[in-house]
Structure formats: structure tokens, C-alpha cells
Amino acid sequence: MWIGMVLAISFVEAPLKFRAPGVTLRIGLGIGRLVFRALNVFEYVFAVVISVALFTHETPTSLNVALCVAVGALLTQTIAVRPLLSRRTTAVLEGDESRRSKAHVTYVALEVVKVAALVCTGVVLVD
């Protein structure tokens, strides 16, 4: 479920919402702020539940490493990168559309890392 939500929101909904008729940059950013805040809450719930389930049982090191990478990417996104994106979003919503945010590229790169780690987690679990 975790990987499905990340793929659906980060790689489908987020870019497509800006192509919808009538959705301006300001509206899209406002929607994105709400959607990603909700996604991150669900991600933390998934991370805690999965971590408790896996780390209270004997599991392969590869599984533990993959899950730690996914959780680490989530933590980095929400603690280090999202505040930068939030400041940029606030500036844009207040009318400052002069510069692009490099933090966005970092956030997307961490999404790719997280998805890869979750795929690895799933593969090891199926094995």
C-alpha cells in the first residue's frame, strides 16, 4: 500500500494536477501542500507498523536495510526538504514566482530512492 500511494501521488497526481484546466500554479501548490502532508502522515503510519512487525521478528539483514533506506528517505524528506519546499510554496502563494526551488529536485530524488527501497523490501518479503 505504501509504495502504491507514493507512486500514485508523487508520480501521477502531482504532475498531472498542473495540467488540469483552470488549475493555476497557486492552486496546484495549495492542493499539493495538503495532499503531501496527508501522504506523509500515512507513510509514517506504514513505516511504524512495518518496522514494528519486522524488527520484532527474525528477518534477513537485506530486508532491514531496505526498510531503513525507505524510512531514512522519508525522514530526510519531511525533516530536511519539506520545510524548504514549504517556504518556497508560501513565497509563491504570496506572489513571488521569480525563482525555482532546487529542493524540489532533491525531494523527487528521495522519492525515487524510497520507491526503490520499498520495491526491494517487497522482493525480499516475497522471497
TrEMBL record:
Membrane-spanning ranges: 34-57, 63-85, 105-126
Keywords of the record: Membrane, Transmembrane, Transmembrane helix
Protein name according to UniProt: Uncharacterized protein
Source organism per UniProt: Mycobacterium yunnanensis
